[in-house]
Specification:
This protein is mostly helical and about 170 residues long. The protein has five helices and no strands. It folds into two domains: about 1-30 and about 55-80, no CATH class; about 90-170. The radius of gyration is 36 Å and the shape is elongated.
Amino acid sequence: MDLKQSQYGGRTTGPEGIVNPEIIKTAATFAPPVSAPASAPPLKTSASTSTSTSKPTLSPFLFYNQPGYYQPSYYQPGYIPSYHKYQNLNADRELQETVTNFYLDETIEWLTHEKSFRSAKKHLKAIKGTNGYDIIRSILKLYIRKTGANWYDLKRDYASVKDYLYRKLH
């Protein structure tokens, strides 16, 4: 009886997913002989003493690697689920410094040259001073907390950050 022409089309399981032992026996009799590599330990035999006439015990699991048997990829030997750990850019202090310095320079530029920021020009001296970095950083942290934005998205949200800075400085 050819393995691929068995009653279930070459599978070891029936329609309900139950393992059919007759097919496994058939597969074990038609399976190619198992030879172990030279460095591997000898195969265990069904007899308690090893003789030249004893056959190695074949496991039904040897059949699963035969052609005609479908085995999902997550059961395949060697399948290792991958785990990726990503860097949290919001916690990156260097990125926060870069964005804060960018908006510090932009705010100074807006306060000195834009007409819409003239009413907030009273804060120009404080922002140009030693506390300017801390003022802008605290405003940006408030913006992030209220909008749920990320530090790396602040340059992309240029217009909304500018409006928020304008409202906080007035």
